[in-house]
Amino acid sequence: MPFTIAIDGPAASGKGTIARALASHFGFRHLDTGLLYRAVGAKGGDPVAAAQNLGPDDLTRDDLRTAEAGQAASRVAAIPEVRAALTEFQRRFARSEPGAVLDGRDIGTVICPQAEVKLYVTASDEVRAKRRAIELDADVDRILTELRERDARDAARDVAPMRPAADAVLLDTSTLSIEQAIALAIEHAKRAGA
Ligand code: CDP
Ligand code: CDP
């Protein structure tokens, strides 16, 4: 039986960093599901058709990490048919042997409600904005506004809103170094049988 680790949380909380480290530690595959929504948003045209026809080239565009791509992703992510078109691919990936780590917003609640490990990674708005501003070499106030707007849209949508699963473990990384956050996540996954 494959082992699935679901990691959710708001923008720039550290999900991807923790997910990559867990995958590397346990020899699991990793899927950054946010990239799927970013690719749909960046493709333009009809978002439902874009989601249904997403190919490998769409996921390697070099403009997917921008704040604009994040906003476009969050808009198309509220469309039920877009989410439906991406569901099966994510569920199949989650069944990878010997295990898989998926990070996003609805992994523990909708995509993999049976995941063996569920983490909900958070950090204060200010810390998240600072980290993302350094990463993108952008103005921290502009990034803070962008993250808050996106989080509000992600949490308020009707379909698969961003929220911790009832059985998720919360990991607040506000005052943690990357190494500390990774160590806590590995410890938790080991306890759960990874
Ligand atoms: O995937 P997500 O958007 O949640 O966040 P990330 O890309 O993993 O992390 C955002 C930025 O915060 C990266 O530059 C990380 O290196 C940094 N980070 C940090 O400084 N401290 C942590 N405990 C976790 C991440
Ligand atoms: O890295 P960051 O946390 O800033 O964003 P991301 O994980 O790349 O996600 C971009 C956007 O895609 C989010 O703001 C959500 O609107 C959407 N998303 C989603 O709805 N469901 C997921 N499983 C992953 C991302």
Structural overview:
- With 194 residues, the protein is α/β, with parallel strands linked by helices.
- It has a single domain (3-186), classed as P-loop containing nucleotide triphosphate hydrolases (Rossmann fold), CATH 3.40.50.300.
- The protein is built from nine helices and five strands; from the N terminus they run βαβααααβαβααβα.
- The chain has a five-stranded parallel beta sheet with strand order 2-3-1-4-5, with helices on both faces.
- α4 packs parallel to α8.
- The chain is globular and about 45 Å long.
- The chain starts with a strand and ends with a helix.
- 43% of the residues are buried.
- The model has no long low-confidence stretch (mean pLDDT 98).
- Bound molecules: cytidine-5'-diphosphate (2 copies).
- The site of one cytidine-5'-diphosphate has 16 residues, from α2, α4 and α8.
Number of strands: 5
- As a percent range, the share of strand residues is 5-15%
CATH homologous superfamily, by name?
P-loop containing nucleotide triphosphate hydrolases
Instruction: Write down the overall geometry.
Output: globular
Largest sheet: 5 strands, parallel
Please indicate the count of domains. Answer: 1
If you consult CATH, what is the topology? Answer: Rossmann fold
